[in-house]
Predict the structure.
Amino acid sequence: KQEVTQIPAALSVPEGENLVLNCSFTDSAIYNLQWFRQDPGKGLTSLLLIQSSQREQTSGRLNASLDKSSGRSTLYIAASQPGDSATYLCSGANNLFFGTGTRLTVIP
Amino acid sequence: NAGVTQTPKFRILKIGQSMTLQCTQDMNHNYMYWYRQDPGMGLKLIYYSVGAGITDKGEVPNGYNVSRSTTEDFPLRLELAAPSQTSVYFCASSYKGVTYGYTFGSGTRLTVV
């Protein structure tokens, strides 16, 4: 069974700092890897999708990478802003398996 | 364009009661999904549907039922509510799978007492 882990569970950084969120999975047959953002009391918003044949995707200040051989994906956020404060979740295998999320707080 | 609409937003049920969580999308999406999210946990897939008349079990289907009589609607039925079903339930839709992007509803917070 696929297990998806996100460490750390919570992270606080000062505004302007660059940061990396981690996502680890146990089965390399992850097909694709997606990163979501979840604001309190809201649904999920898709940020980046890495297809099985791709290694990374970029959107604005966000960059996500996927390394199937090591079972890891990272989400890089450049020049963090208070508006980036949210919980970030990764999911794999066509969104069948979700990580537990990293709660990010960006301090002004 | 409303997207994915879930009702109700909050509900308290007594053990053994039944209820239906409603999910409607107006984007003509073929694929629809039901997830549950327990506190501090990721989402777990309950059921999904790839089109009207077709439904399939996800990772945690026990205690739930679904139907898909129309493209727009994908209700989730709890027949005998149990405390273990206390959770936040999310409905999502997609045109044709993850490649085309998912749209999530805002969730239904269910408490079973």
The radius of gyration of chain B is 13 Å. The longest strand of chain B covers residues 43-51.
